[in-house]
UniProtKB/TrEMBL annotation:
Coiled coil: none annotated. It comes from the Bacteria. Transmembrane segments: none annotated. The lineage of its organism: Bacteria, Pseudomonadati, Pseudomonadota, Gammaproteobacteria, Pseudomonadales. Residues 27-186 form the SGNH hydrolase-type esterase domain. SUPFAM superfamilies: SGNH hydrolase. GO terms for molecular function: phosphatidylcholine lysophospholipase activity. Keywords: Signal. This is SGNH hydrolase-type esterase domain-containing protein. Residues 1-21 form the signal peptide. It comes from Pseudomonas syringae pv. avii.
Length: 201
């Protein structure tokens, strides 16, 4: 009888752990897709390792596509939400919008829509901010960077002001194209995200 109770107790513990386990959905572009890298060394893979080290059972789904824009992310988000039913959605998009010179107002609308859809599905949201090179002109660069903070404030979601903080502008941490972080930068990218992500788990 004692053995039965122990077995039943263990089974209930396992069920509780599985029930508590959630899903973190990363919706991003080439930076999160690991462009030019062995994806096993990208920041998203490092996040999976960090979760295990910290005792979290959450799984990570990387729905990032190289070259994607906020419009592309918005278009494919409903299917990703329906398929993976995430508890947390990390939005890492906008860089390609900026590099293509697309209107900041459109980026703002797309990001807000993604946040609203994610929240409506029951997920918490973390927004990762981006910046673009100064050669795009001061007015556009500032307007672009301002979008992320404005969206985060209006939608009341946590955000990382600049996902590439400590990486962008450091040639030794970038690939030869000067746009994509190298393997050496992936730990730093995770460290930029983790303090804002951990409270949402």
């Amino acid at each position: 009888m004692r053995v039965w109770f122990l077995s039943a107790g263990l089974a209930l513990m396992c069920m509780a752990q599985n029930a508590a386990a959630g899903t973190v959905l990363i919706v991003g572009d080439s930076i999160s897709a690991g462009f030019g890298l062995d994806t096993r060394k990208g920041w998203v893979a490092l996040l999976e390792q960090r979760l295990k080290q910290e005792g979290f059972d959450d799984k990570v789904v990387n729905a990032s596509i190289s070259g994607d824009t906020s419009a592309g992310g918005l278009a494919r988000l409903p299917a990703a939400l329906a398929t993976h039913k995430p508890d947390v959605v990390v939005i890492e998009l906008g860089g390609n919008d900026g590099l293509r010179g697309q209107p900041p107002a459109q980026l703002q609308q797309n990001l807000a829509s993604m946040i609203q859809q994610s929240r409506d599905s029951g997920a918490k949201v973390l927004l990762l901010g981006m910046q673009i090179p100064p050669n795009y002109g001061k007015r556009y660069v500032e307007a672009f960077a301002k979008v992320f903070g404005d969206v985060a404030q209006k939608e009341k979601v946590p955000f990382v002001p600049f996902f590439l903080e400590g990486v962008g502008g450091h040639p030794e941490l970038m690939q030869a194209d000067g746009l994509h972080p190298a393997v050496a930068a992936q730990d730093k990218l995770l460290e930029n995200v983790w303090p804002a992500l951990k409270p949402l788990l």
